[in-house]
Amino acid sequence: MDSVALSSPSPSPSTSTSSLKSRFLQKPSQNSKQLSSSVSFSSSSCSDFRSPTKAISMAAASNNGNSQRKIVTGPAGYVLEDVPHLSDYIPDLPTYPNPLQDNPAYSVVKQYFVHVDDTVPQKVVVHKDSPRGTHFRRAGPRQKVYFESDEVYACIVTCGGLCPGLNTVIREIVYSLYYMYGVKRVLGIDGGYRGFYAKNTIALTPKGVNDIHKRGGTVLGTSRGGHDTSKIVDSIQDRGINQVYIIGGDGTQKGASVIYEEVRRRGLKVVVAGIPKTIDNDIPVIDRSFGFDTAVEEAQRAINAAHVEAESSENCIGLVKLMGRYSGFIAMYATLASRDVDCCLIPESPFYLEGHGGLFEYIETRLKENGHMVIVIAEGAGQDLLAESIRSATQQDASGNKLLQDVGLWLSQKIKDHFAKEKKMPINLKYIDPTYMIRAVPSNASDNVYCTLLAQSCVHGAMAGYTGYTSGLVNGRQTYIPFYRIIEKQHHVVITDRMWARLLSSTNQPSFMNHKDVIEDKKEEELLTQIVNEDKKEEELPTKIPDISTEDNLVKKEIAA
Ligand SMILES: Nc1ncnc2c1ncn2[C@@H]1O[C@H](COP(=O)(O)OP(=O)(O)OP(=O)(O)O)[C@@H](O)[C@H]1O
Ligand SMILES: O=P(O)(O)OC[C@H]1O[C@](O)(CO)[C@@H](O)[C@@H]1O
Ligand SMILES: [Mg+2]
């Protein structure tokens, strides 16, 4: 391997080496000496490593990748949405006893290995006669593995936005590979998907990642855009990587899915495994995403501050903007947890400002009743209203996600204008935007445990030869979910579900359910104005027509001719 010590990184193509290095050397890591001994940078492919992928690729060249869904049905409406396995497209793969069987820590566990038939139901609430429904394969160690320890060359990449817990997942993948399976070669890919082909890599060791879970962000860096499937798979193949761990949100899992398809098309013995990361909790099927708990907890601090400010002045409104592009889970849970919030606005529940049942009316009532109030708004809420008042071109980020207007600033101004100009009622508004502060913190205790289980489950699955899956918690159990189920749709707050009703009853805010009526009324009003204006124009027309052919104009036309 073309490997360079940390103290003297390769000059080319290492534009990003210093940022990767600095992320690793950040506080609170006290052991820089230890790092320099365990971390090395690679500036080119590892051509001297054994490359099992290439050998298998040749062997499987005639075996056209067929990544059809694996659906197993059973009695009473049982359905297993199974995940792919290397043996689906590579025949006669050798298996080995799981090294965990000799691990003293696990020897005490009764039935440590997961039974081949263990599956987890997607729905736990069922009726006596209802079908058993969809199930996913239970995650965990298997009796047989499809890789020998020294054959494995794993890599880890993080993509998309930041989320508390990313470093914990990275650390636990490295630790699980090293200490459970004796895997010594783990590579960190710098700066998201494009890092596979355009950036440096870093060798990850238990020592090097020992205390990264205490820091926010990701030591590997992240990015949006830059997903070039063939370049990524070429890089995987050239380096001889055979386990790819991909941590990221819905976009990242879509990227992982196409990498898996390409790997399979090429017939490579390479596992592609995803770990779902989304602070917005917008990934379907899973109970919740890691970092979400931390985000909700951190949001409390902002809401508390807004409440303290609001309570301290007359007619004061504390307005807090939280993340949530298309899904308002953080806002909803932070509101439910806080009890200080009078109104929570999320993308899934349209609202309106003026008129009966609107936000302004509610604010006025609340201020008259209580003298202060707290509003929480998810960043994706009310974007339709913004689009009406700020006519701007739709912009996208590098991954193609729509860039949102700042609804917090917009709403602050709207409220101020309304009460100052229309109501002549002096109000005080304190706007707090803690969004990036919430995303950048290290994960809390509960998320750390969750990240550990996710990482361990993901590694067990890869060692057992499963591929094309995302590791996820379903009804409190770790499972392997096929990529297509993770990427087919986004998870949203359902405003006709009990949870939203609980929120409405805790805040006493309007449901904005007559939103449609108001919109209809507005449309009718607009239509009416249009008709009236057109009528007016028609009335004016006869007086204008002679204008065109005034003597003056005729003279001008003659001169021009
Ligand atoms: N449909 C797709 N096919 C292939 N790659 C994709 C696709 N969508 C997104 N990606 C890639 O996945 C990476 C991350 O995507 P994105 O920026 O949307 O973040 P994300 O994973 O959805 O996370 P989050 O939304 O939580 O920030 C980017 O590098 C992007 O190029
Ligand atoms: O500004 P960035 O980092 O591109 O991402 C912002 C977006 O990322 C998210 O945090 C999801 O990761 C959204 O809530 C937010 O809209
Ligand atoms: Mg996304």
UniProtKB/TrEMBL annotation:
SUPFAM superfamilies: Phosphofructokinase. The keyword Kinase applies. GO terms for molecular function: 6-phosphofructokinase activity; ATP binding; metal ion binding. The active site is at residue 280. The record marks 251 as: Important for substrate specificity. Substrate binds at residues 278-280, 323-325, 379, 436-439. Its main location: cytoplasm. The keyword Chaperone does not apply. GO terms for biological process: fructose 6-phosphate metabolic process. ATP binds at residues 161, 224-225, 249-252. Its EC number is 2.7.1.11. Pathway: Carbohydrate degradation; glycolysis; D-glyceraldehyde 3-phosphate and glycerone phosphate from D-glucose: step 3/4. It is an enzyme of class 2 (transferase). GO terms for cellular component: cytoplasm. It is found in: Cytoplasm. Keywords: Allosteric enzyme, ATP-binding, Cytoplasm, Glycolysis, Kinase, Magnesium, Metal-binding, Nucleotide-binding, Transferase. Residues 155-460 form the Phosphofructokinase domain. Allosterically activated by AMP. It catalyses: beta-D-fructose 6-phosphate + ATP = beta-D-fructose 1,6-bisphosphate + ADP + H(+). Its cofactor is Mg(2+). Homotetramer. NCBIfam families: PRK06830.1. Catalyzes the phosphorylation of D-fructose 6-phosphate to fructose 1,6-bisphosphate by ATP, the first committing step of glycolysis. Belongs to the phosphofructokinase type A (PFKA) family. PPi-dependent PFK group II subfamily. Atypical ATP-dependent clade 'X' sub-subfamily. This is ATP-dependent 6-phosphofructokinase. It comes from Citrus clementina (Clementine). The gene is PFK.
